[in-house]
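task queued by scheduler; priority normal; single chain, no ligands, no partner chains; default sampling; output format set to structure tokens
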Amino acid sequence: QVQLVESGGGLVQPGGSLRLSCAASGRIFRIYAMGWYRQAPGKQRELVATITSSSSTNYADSVKGRFTISRDNAKNTVYLQMNSLKPEDTAVYYCNIEVGLNYYWGQGTQVTVSS
């Protein structure tokens, strides 16, 4: 029905930047909220940032001022610009979108922050 394809993860040094993308395709009439979550080894998945259909944003305290979420409705794509990355940002990052009454998850992309 709905497929999500994530890209942009990788290995970066502390203080560096990465930009994640998540493109949705399939049976989509309208996407409501979009968001990014992450899961570090041995930890629960946690919210990183969300953006509503009216572009209101919400961030976890740990990423405020460093990460920026945005969306391109024409492309059904959500982005996460990550700056000033820290080792504690290392995790698998997942996108999540709300379509109608359903939520869909991406496959995850690994972000590793290490020197």
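post-processing summary
- The first strand starts at residue 2 and ends at 7.
- Residues 49 and 59 are 4 Å apart (CA to CA).
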